[in-house]
Hints:
Radius of gyration: 21 Å
CATH topology of the largest domain: D-Maltodextrin-Binding Protein, domain 2
Order of helices and strands: HEHEHEHHHEEEEHEHHHEHEEHHEHHH
Keywords: Signal, Transport
Structural class: alpha/beta
Number of domains: 2
Protein name: ABC transporter substrate-binding protein
CATH superfamily of the largest domain: Periplasmic binding protein-like II
Signal peptide: 1-24
GO cellular component, one term: ATP-binding cassette (ABC) transporter complex, substrate-binding subunit-containing
Strand order of the largest sheet: 2-1-3-11-6-12
GO molecular function, one term: maltose binding
Amino acid sequence: MKQQNTAGRLLAAAAVATAVSVVAGCTPAPADNAEEGEIVWAIGGPRSQPGGAHLSIAELWNEENPDTPVRVEALPEAADGAREQQALVLQAGGSEFDVLGLDVIWTGEYVENDWIVSLEDVRADLEGVTLPGPMESSSWGGELWAAPLNTNAGILYYRTDLVDEAPRTWTELCAAAESIAAEEGMDGFIGQGARYEGFVVNWLELFWSAGGDLYNSDQSEVVFDVDLATEVTEFIAESVDDGCFAPGYNTAMEEESRIAFQSGDAAFMRNWPGPYALIADDSESPANGVTGVAPLPSFTGEPGVSAIGGFNNAVSAFSERQDIAKDFVVWAATSVEVQTILAEDAVLPVHVPLYDEFADDPVMQQLGEILQDAKPRPAAPQWAEISLEMQRTLFEAANGQMSARDAAEQMRTFLEGTLNG
């Protein structure tokens, strides 16, 4: 696709926004008091900055609800900084914030700290029109605690000039990688294999696609399968050794992966949707015009399972305007106008019917299908510690620094400890 389609335009903006977020400076501290009748929406990220989609959403609400306006309190663009600023107010029981923009992995922590209120009473307003993965990320202990705002998902990029169709299994992908290496001298698959959160996401996508999981549906029981985890980790190690995974896989983050694929060094890539537009705009790239996107492979032939990212909106337990705040978060999740604003600012919407608007755009249609089965990382209160433990054990095993079975057994023990206090 040489031309830049709807997805290309949207995802180009996403790439710019990501770059801006890296260099942005500090944001103002929260105001001590809101105006009478006003609700304060505390959310980070580049779209809360001047000209961003979150301000446009607030303006739309204010036009429709002039007696109960919303004001965006722009938190730091980096997730850690935004969470820290919210936590400072919430730990003090402050009522400065009414609506809290949460990263999808913060839900459990905020619930366990009694920082947000249940939204179970508005579940019916959200179900059916909101993608199931984001709904799952908004839940904890079988109860709904937030309303999804926007989402993201991992996808497979592949070269349509090198393979007739996207590989459905990892066996097919590795066979294609071997053939392409012999004929074209190119590397195979590149993803996010460096020792950071990206490795955890990539490992979980493999584990989920093999039928594994960390916890049961309400996160009350560990269901981590040691044998399956061992096999998945050994697969990564073997794929690095035999060349199915590109050299440098275990040091690559998102940007390194994109550069490898865009420069023609790798035939397959796991990444977020953003690189698509950059490739479509790069006329010098060997991948320009010959890049396809598809669900991630699995071990069974069924479509793989993608990890999701994004923002959810919760209502502060300390808000003095909880009823209005609830109305706002439901409206933001279900309003076609709001979700269109997000889509036009290169954010994947959570509103299922909106994907019908992109019926002629194969990339957005593919993303809509992938998002139906995408999964969030567990919204556990201890997620930061869980992620670090996965990096300590599973990353080391995937790189030959410890036994894959030992790593899996240690991971199972650690997960059980998260339930035992």
